[in-house]
Each structure stands twice: as C-alpha cells, then as structure tokens.
C-alpha cells in the first residue's frame, strides 16, 4: 500500500513537471479598456471564470492567475498550457491570447555598461537640460505634475529625492507606498509620492526571488531606476556641502519639483542569467502601467525596450501605453541601443514619444604626454593626480610566459610580470576581458597607471571608465603612436594628466553610435525616433546597493554615477513633457509631443547639421525631429493634435481592432500616412502622394502662417493652401502636402534609399517644422 502510494505521488510529480514545462505566462486580451465602473474584484471574478472554463478545478484556476488588468488593457495574465491558451482564444469576446515575451524587454542602457563615474568627477557636472529659468518658473518647476517610472525601483535615501520645502502631495494622487524588504512607508515623501513593485511574471519564469540579489520591495538594487528617476525630477541642491561634495546646482533633474511615482517591474536578478539586472516581464509591466493610470500619473517614462519591435497587438508596452494615452498621459520611451544598424529601433508606436540619444557639450579629458613631448588625447572619468613622468611599457613586452600570443597586450588577470611593471605606466589594449579588470591587473603588478587603447573594432568611440588607478583611454591609432614611441627609445616615459571636465565642446550634440535607427520596421509610414536628448555620459543618482560598473568584483559604492543609453535620454524628454504639462494642463499628449518635436533643432552648436559619432551627417532616422528644446516647446505656435480614436483608426489600418466590441473599424480605414503626425515618412514613392494634416493654433489669436520646405532630393513638396489664417486660439486648419517624384536625373539613381528634408510653417515668430523621409520605389 505504501509503495503504491509513493509511486502514485511520483507519477503525479512526473506528470506535473512535464506539463509544467509547457506552461507559460499568457496575456489574455479582450480589447478595449476601462471596464466601465466595474470594481477590480468583480473583474477578477470574471477572469477567474474564464480560467475555470479551461482549468480542471477552482484551485488550479486561482493558482494560475497572475494579474487582472483594468486600465492598461482589458484582460489578464495567467499561466496556461498552449492548449488552454488556444481554447481561450476561440472565445468570441477574446481579442487575442499570446505568450508574454520572457526576457525580451530590457533596460536601455548601453550594451556594456561602459560609462562609469565616481563622486569626485561629478563635482564638475552642470545642468544639461537647456531649460530656461523662465520655463522652469512658469511651470513652477513641475510641482503639480506626477511622473511615473516603470523601471528597477528607487534608492529613496538619495539626496536627489529629498522633499525639503516641497508643497503637499497633489490632491489628485490616488497611489500608494507599498512596503516591503528594506522599504517602509516613511521612505515615501512629498517627492517620491508613490512606490510599488511587480514580480509575479518574473517569479513564474525564474522561481522565487533570490533575496540576496534583489529586495522584494520598490528598493532599487540595480541603479538604473534611481538614475532615470533623478534625471526626471532629482532635486537641485543649493549648497555643495549639502550634497556630499557636489557643486551647486548639479545633478539636478529636469523638473526638480515634479513628483515621482515609482513602479518597479525590472529586477536585478537572477544574476546568473544573461539578462542580469535587465529583466522586465511584460505581465509585470502591464500591471505597473495599469496602476500608474489608476493612480493618476501625468507622464510615464519607460526606459525599456526590445531589440526588435513586436507587432502592436503583442507588445505590452505599446498596448499599455495606448490606454495611458487615452487617459491623456504622455508616454516617453527609449528608442533602444541597437544602433547604428538601420531598422534597429524599438517602441515605434505612434502614440509614444520615442527618444534617441545624443551627446552633451561636455567631455572628460585626461591626456597622455609622452617623454618626447607629444600629447595624445585621452578620455577618462577616473579621479587621480600623477605628479611626474613615469617609465612607460607596452603590456606585451612585460607579460608572463605562456599567455596566448593574441592576448599578450590585453592585461588579462595574472598576465603581467610585477618586476617589469612596478612603478610604471602600462599600455594595454582592448579586445578581451573587462576594461576595469585590466586596470586592476596593472595595479596588482605594481603599475602606477594604465593607458587603455581601443581595438580597431571599437572605432572612434572612447570608453569612459572610473578605474582603480590613474588611467585614461585612447583611440586605436593613438595607441599605435604610443607603441611606436615606446619602440623608438630606450627610456620611454609618460604622464597621464589630471582628468578635467571640458565644457562647450564642439560639435555637440552628435548622435551616439549606439542609438537605435529608423526606418520604422513595423510601419514605415511613421517616422521614428521622434526626438533626441542627451544620453551620453549622463550624471545622476545611483543605488548604493550596486557598484557603478555592476561587475561582481567591483565593490565600490557611489551616490552618483555616469551612465549612457537611450534610457538616459528618455527621462530628459519626460521631464520636459512634465514642465509643458504644468504650463498647458489642457493639452493632449499628442499636442505636447508635437510641441517638443516641431521646435526641436537639427543643427549642432556650431550651426552645422548634427552628425553621427564618426562625423557623417546624421538623419531623422537617428534624431527624429532633432535635439529637444524645451524652452521653445512651451510656445510652439501650432500643434498637430491627435486623439485616442485617431490611434484606434490607425490600428485599423494595421488590421488590428483592440477595442472590439466597443469600437468598430470602418470598412476602409484611413491610411497610416494620414495620421496627424508631426513628421512625414513615405516609403517607395512612385508618382505622387498626397498627405493630409491639421494644425491647431496655440500661439497668437490672430496669426498668419506661411509654408516653406526643403524637399528631399529628387522630389517636390507643395502645400495647399500654402498660407494659413487664424483668428482665434484653438482654431484648426487643414492642409495637404503633395509629394511628387522628380525626374530620374534629379533622383540620381537613388533607388530604395531614403532621402530626407523638411517642411515648416512660420508666422515670423514661431517655426513649426516637420522632418520628411522618402524612399523611391
Ligand atoms: C523606516 O525605515 C527607516 C530606515 O530604514 C527607519 O529609520 C524608520 O524608523 C522606519 N520607520 C518605521 C515607521 O518603521
Ligand atoms: C542567490 O544569489 C546569490 C548571489 O548572486 C548566489 O550566490 C546564489 O547561488 C543564488 N541562489 C540561488 C538559489 O540561485
Ligand atoms: C551654504 O554653505 C555655506 C558655508 O558652507 C553657508 O554659509 C551657507 O549658509 C549655506 N547656504 C545654504 C543655502 O544652505
Ligand atoms: C585569442 O585566442 C583565444 C584562443 O584561440 C580566443 O579564445 C580569444 O578570443 C582570442 N582573443 C583575441 C583578443 O583575439
Ligand atoms: C559604432 O558601432 C559599431 C558596432 O558596434 C562599430 O563597428 C563602429 O566602429 C562604431 N563606430 C564608431 C564611430 O565608433
Ligand atoms: C511606378 O508606377 C508606374 C506607373 O504607374 C509603373 O508602371 C511602375 O511599374 C511603378 N514602378 C514601381 C517600381 O513600382
């Protein structure tokens, strides 16, 4: 009897585990959103009855349920087998059932977390927002605006989140401060007015949270969420001493009095997985967006993306954001860090503002001076002070025997001979191994400094690192020059000069190499990204639970650090949107986006076209409408508005009807080309295309706008009418833009390639510009 019983148990376990293998988190989508006045528990009951219809019993149905959504989508997430999912999808009221994409969403910092800084360097930071005092005071520094961040949580003790002197929490706020491990409700204040966390999806895939790697609470154990939150709304601290060594007015967020609502849906665990510190599950993000909508945020900043865009009906960020937009929440998303390859862009939905990354006009230099007097450009964020020239060696000349011949110059751990390195500066090359560990190896062997040379594969991009000893980074060609010098003399020497911040560098901005590029792989009729903002070497607050490099061997703790990525540029635009929202509370999210886009600037601080990192001319496929100018955006003159219904019609043109049965697509949906977007993209032009647009007057009550254009090469661009007369604010005027293919000679054989231009309206005071991208059939 006992034996049989045990065997039976064993069999059950076996069966359970084989079924387990196939189980997955699915999103069940009914279409529409906002289940009217229904309370969440009623909705949950309904969802439960759906689960009961495919599960064996009550208990199983309960256990499989993850989240019920009310605002972000009308639907729920649950653990299902493919068979159960198929059965649910056959129900008439179900729009779609799809497996939640595991591990495919990630935080959008640079590929290698290369940009690392220390407290000392931060002294030299300054306001990089380009937000005039006038704009800030008009917007009351954003104090009535609530910005939600879906990210890795927050380090609430950071001075950036002090609520000193802030007014009461806006009355409209309905959120909560969810307590958890190392996070009690006293950590929320008048700055961080809400905090929540979501991990049912994560635990479904990875099992119970590993408590040594992350806290079951809104606390940020990664750093990313703290960085983005302080970039949006970090406090400006008037006194250096108050900031533990920071200079006045530094590391300030763009909307310093805006309120923060923290939604932790990305986790620093499991570190053993490739997705370490980068794991955001769709089911969790949807729950976060759901709560953010209900809590009453005004702006959502989501620095999360995918390497490849998913179809709109299968992309949790896109669907959730669409319903946020329905509630007039502006959603800013990062374009991604998969550039410079074409069509590498994520978050392409036209109801988002998709943000690319460019440089600041600031640089960190630490040049090398050789014994022969030659000065070589070096870049570093390592604080140090070498007082004199030191002997200089090339790593390959001082390596221990047995190192593989292709790795003698790499300064890999244990590869250097201490007797030959002691007291010297070592030239090491990139290629294999961590950059920081190369510095540690030089230090271990008794060296006094590191010159880190790029490999040819690194191109012209400098790596900015905070090493453990005096160190600077040089380009490949310069590393070769240094090596030549070492070979040319018996007593090579060098000094790495003290690192300093250089302001007003030119040209700036240039586009980061990593920023993801258009054309829009999902819909070539929508030009993406929309805009660009600073995303290279951005200083902001950091989690004290995570080292600045996030490498296991790096034990340093910093309060502020420098990071790069479209993750860093997205919160800049979210901050600008928060200020605009404060000034124009009645504007739609489309109007705010339009204002930011049509006032953006396509030139750098030398008055020349914005370039890529390699100096080539950048295009709207990397910067969208250009570099953001929040001060101009407060008074754009005209806006291209669009409503939630316009986006539903747009989705109809893609064959999706999310809102079944509330909203029915017309038999002949309008072309995506005619969505009232502040930019124009026309793929495969052959003959003539007529584009319709409508502008709303938000400038002077009586005004006259004139049309002009810089047509893309090989096409002509005309507007009808070409003059717009307005006699009151809020008045709308429609016009058409006729884009006509020129002769073969004017096209100069440019087949399939994209060419770029712009058109604009101006009344003499305002410039309302829209970029254009056209490719030929
Ligand atoms: C909350 O946590 C903080 C810091 O960990 C602690 O100082 C404080 O006493 C706690 N407050 C309550 C009400 O538990
Ligand atoms: C939890 O994380 C720690 C630290 O990364 C690791 O050593 C340990 O193996 C993990 N535990 C489990 C059960 O994965
Ligand atoms: C700033 O610090 C100085 C001295 O360190 C002090 O005299 C001054 O009152 C402080 N200002 C503020 C606004 O705290
Ligand atoms: C050097 O060769 C080893 C073994 O063939 C290989 O694993 C490694 O990636 C190479 N390193 C470089 C820098 O080419
Ligand atoms: C840009 O990145 C690509 C791919 O990582 C690399 O091949 C190229 O050299 C880089 N370009 C510059 C200018 O750094
Ligand atoms: C362009 O249009 C012309 C006339 O309608 C047609 O003959 C030609 O095949 C089209 N070319 C392409 C590449 O579609």
Automatic annotation (TrEMBL):
Active-site residues, record numbering mapped to chain: 151, 224, 567
GO MF, any single term: serine-type endopeptidase activity
Bias-annotated ranges (Basic and acidic residues): 213-225
UniProt keyword list: Glycoprotein, Hydrolase, Protease, Serine protease, Signal
Occurrences of domain PA (ranges): 398-480
Residue numbers spanned by region Disordered: 211-230
Cleaved signal peptide residues: 1-19
Record-annotated Subtilisin-like protease fibronectin type-III domain positions: 674-774
Alphabetized InterPro entries for the sequence: PA_domain, Peptidase_S8/S53_dom, Peptidase_S8/S53_dom_sf, Peptidase_S8_Ser-AS, Peptidase_S8_subtilisin-rel, Peptidases_S8_3, S8pro/Inhibitor_I9, S8pro/Inhibitor_I9_sf
Domain Inhibitor I9 span(s) in chain numbering: 25-102
Start and end residues of each Peptidase S8/S53 domain: 142-626
UniProt-listed GO biological process terms: proteolysis
SUPFAM superfamilies hit by this protein: Subtilisin-like
Entry similarity comment: Belongs to the peptidase S8 family.
Record's protein name: Subtilisin-like protease SBT5.6
Naturally occurring in which organism (per UniProt): Citrus clementina
């Amino acid at each position: 009897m006992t034996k049989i019983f045990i065997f039976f148990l064993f069999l059950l376990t076996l069966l359970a585990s084989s079924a387990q293998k196939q189980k997955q988190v699915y999103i069940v989508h009914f279409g529409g959103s906002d289940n009217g006045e229904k309370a969440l528990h009623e909705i949950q009951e309904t969802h439960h009855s759906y689960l009961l219809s495919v599960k064996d019993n009550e208990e199983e149905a309960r256990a499989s349920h993850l989240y019920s959504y009310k605002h972000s989508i009308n639907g729920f997430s649950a653990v299902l087998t493919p068979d159960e999912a198929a059965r649910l999808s056959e129900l008439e009221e179900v729009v779609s059932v799809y497996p939640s994409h595991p591990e495919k969403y990630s935080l959008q910092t640079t590929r290698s977390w290369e940009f690392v800084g220390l407290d000392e360097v931060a002294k030299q930071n300054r306001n990089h927002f380009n937000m005039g005092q006038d704009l800030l005071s008009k917007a009351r520094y954003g104090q009535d605006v609530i910005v939600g961040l879906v990210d890795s949580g927050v380090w609430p003790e950071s001075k950036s989140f002090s609520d000193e002197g802030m007014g009461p929490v806006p009355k409209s706020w309905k959120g909560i401060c969810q307590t958890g491990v190392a996070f009690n409700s006293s950590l929320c204040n008048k700055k961080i007015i809400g905090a929540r966390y979501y991990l049912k999806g994560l635990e479904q895939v990875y099992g119970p949270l590993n408590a040594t790697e992350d806290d079951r609470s809104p606390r940020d154990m990664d750093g990313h969420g703290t960085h983005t939150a302080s970039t949006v709304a970090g406090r400006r601290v008037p006194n250096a001493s108050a900031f533990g060594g920071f200079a006045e007015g530094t590391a300030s967020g763009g909307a310093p009095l805006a309120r923060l609502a923290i939604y932790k849906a990305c986790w620093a665990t499991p570190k053993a997985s490739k997705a370490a510190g980068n794991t955001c599950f769709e089911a969790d993000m949807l729950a976060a967006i759901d709560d953010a909508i209900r809590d009453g945020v005004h702006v959502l900043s989501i620095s999360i993306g995918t390497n490849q865009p998913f179809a709109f009906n299968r992309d949790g960020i896109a669907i959730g954001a669409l319903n946020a937009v329905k509630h007039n929440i502006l959603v800013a998303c990062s374009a991604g860090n998969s550039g410079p390859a074409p069509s590498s862009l994520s978050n392409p939905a036209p109801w988002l503002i998709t943000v690319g990354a460019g440089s600041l006009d600031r640089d960190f230099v630490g040049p090398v001076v050789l014994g022969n007097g030659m000065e070589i450009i070096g870049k570093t964020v390592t604080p140090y002070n070498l007082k004199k020239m030191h002997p200089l060696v090339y790593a390959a000349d001082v390596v221990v025997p047995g190192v593989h011949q292709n790795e003698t110059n790499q300064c890999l751990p244990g590869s250097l001979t201490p007797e030959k390195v002691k007291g010297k500066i070592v030239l090491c090359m990139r290629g294999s191994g961590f950059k920081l560990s190369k510095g540690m190896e030089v230090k271990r062997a008794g060296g006094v400094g590191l010159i880190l040379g790029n490999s040819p594969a690194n191109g012209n991009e400098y790596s900015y690192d905070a090493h453990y000893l005096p160190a600077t980074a040089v380009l490949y060609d310069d590393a070769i020059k240094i090596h030549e010098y070492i070979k040319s003399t018996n007593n090579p020497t060098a000094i790495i000069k003290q690192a300093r911040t250089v302001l007003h560098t030119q040209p700036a901005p240039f586009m980061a190499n990593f920023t993801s590029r258009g054309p829009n792989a999902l819909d070539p009729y929508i030009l993406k990204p929309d805009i660009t903002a600073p995303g290279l070497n951005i200083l902001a607050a950091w989690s004290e639970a995570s080292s600045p490099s996030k490498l296991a061997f790096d034990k340093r703790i910093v309060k502020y650090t420098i990071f790069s990525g479209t993750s860093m540029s997205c919160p800049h635009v979210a901050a600008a949107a928060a200020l605009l929202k404060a000034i124009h509370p009645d504007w739609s999210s489309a109007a705010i986006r339009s204002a930011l886009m049509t006032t953006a600037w396509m030139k750098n601080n030398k008055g020349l076209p914005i370039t890529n990192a390699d100096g080539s001319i950048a295009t709207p496929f990397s910067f969208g409408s250009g570099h953001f100018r929040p001060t101009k955006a407060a008074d754009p003159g005209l806006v291209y508005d669009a409503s939630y219904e316009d986006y539903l019609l747009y989705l109809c043109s893609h064959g999706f009807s999310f809102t079944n049965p509330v909203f029915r697509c017309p038999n002949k949906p309008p072309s995506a080309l005619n969505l009232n977007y502040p930019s124009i993209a026309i793929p495969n032009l052959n003959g003539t295309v007529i584009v319709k647009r409508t502008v709303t007057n938000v400038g002077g009550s009586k005004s006259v706008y004139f049309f002009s254009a810089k047509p893309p090469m090989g096409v002509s661009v005309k507007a009808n009418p070409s003059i717009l007369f307005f006699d009151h604010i809020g008045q709308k005027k429609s016009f058409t833009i006729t884009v006509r293919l020129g002769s073969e000679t004017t096209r100069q054989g440019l087949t399939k390639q994209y060419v770029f231009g712009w058109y604009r309206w101006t009344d003499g005071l305002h410039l309302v510009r829209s970029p254009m991208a056209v490719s030929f059939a």
